[in-house]
Amino acid sequence: MAKVITNNIRKLRFEHQEMTQQKLADSVSVSRQTIVAIEKGKYSPSLEVAFKIADIFEQPINQVFIYQEQP
User: Nearest 5 degrees, angle CA 38-CA 43-CA 47?
Assistant: First the structure.
C-alpha cells in the first residue's frame, strides 16, 4: 500500500486565533498558494518548511504532519 502525508494545518490555524493562510505563509517565508497546496495535500513541503510550520504552532512535527497508509 502507498503511504501519504496528511496534515493538521487547517485545524491548527483555527486553534491559533484563526490564523490566516497568508499570515502562516509570511511566517515561514513561502507563498499563500504554497500553504493552500500543503493543506490540501497536493504538495509536500521541504523538511525545513515542515519544521518551521511545526515551530509556529509549537507542536512536534508528527502532530502537524502524519505519514500514514493511504485510506
Answer: 80
